Amino acid sequence: MEEITAIIVDDEKEARYILGKLLTDFSEVEVLSTEDSADNALAAILKYKPDIVFLDIDMPVKTGFDLVEELRQYNVSPTIVFVTAFNEYAIEAIKHSAFDYLVKPVDIDDLQETLSRYNAEKNQNELSNKIEDLLKCLNKEKIRFDTREGIIYMYPNDITYCKADGNYSYIYCNREEPPRLITINIGNLTKLLPDNFLRISRSLIVNKIYLFEINRRSRQCKLLTNSGYLAFDVSRKYIKLIGNI
């Protein structure tokens, strides 16, 4: 079996250690380095040009998605295997466009399956297109929003939902930070956001990558975010629309 070179990227020391330890059971895998941030990982990837990058998603300062965007700018295309503690965190985008993902704590059987599939598919052309497909699916271009104090720039899929406040709107993120008030009403905000955002009432827009459940009887939808479940009422006008997505 041909050798596979790999880099592990995770801001948690224990997570890096555990995955590295699991990979020692696979004689064909050589771990070239383990990195604790997206910036350090970028330098290591450019230096070593690994076959696979085992990449944590939720890291401070820059996320795993930010690193993927930077790799495209350098025209580097390793196979990306996302490693996430959140079973529903952007999984719809990831499973359709990244090569694979592993849920923490990583199970050795899942790791075996990922490596076996890599060996089976590595000579196929579509592996080199995965990063481009992933970025399209994640819609990674930042959006500019005006605030009363100035301007903010946000990635669409960092936004979990938006709530109207008169002629303004609040943006809520999938991070531990307060909502941001922007100077645009909910109607115009709907036009500004990409297609993965759904209007569920006169005052609410939700990001469907976090959508977990739709209950037509109670006219409610649930989102699953890093902080847990969020439940929202859906107006009669919109319940049929979101039930067909």
Feature tags:
single chain; 245 residues; alpha/beta; Rossmann fold; OB fold (Dihydrolipoamide Acetyltransferase, E2P); 2 domains; five-stranded parallel beta sheet; five-stranded antiparallel beta sheet; 8 helices; 31% helix; 31% strand; elongated
Describe the structure.
The chain has helices at residues 13-23, 38-48, 64-73, 91-97, 108-121, 130-138, 186-192, 236-243; strands spanning 4-9, 29-35, 52-56, 79-84, 100-103, 143-146, 151-154, 159-165, 168-173, 180-182, 197-199, 204-207, 211-215, 220-225, 228-233. With 245 residues, the protein is of the alpha/beta class. The chain folds into 2 domains: 4-138, 3-Layer(aba) Sandwich (Rossmann fold); 143-243, LytTr DNA-binding domain (OB fold (Dihydrolipoamide Acetyltransferase, E2P)). Strands 2-1-3-4-5 form a 5-stranded parallel β-sheet, sandwiched between helices. Strand 9 and strand 10 form a beta hairpin. Helix 4 runs antiparallel to helix 6 (130-138). The radius of gyration is 20 Å and the shape is elongated.
Describe the structure in brief.
The protein has about 240 residues and is α/β, with parallel strands linked by helices.
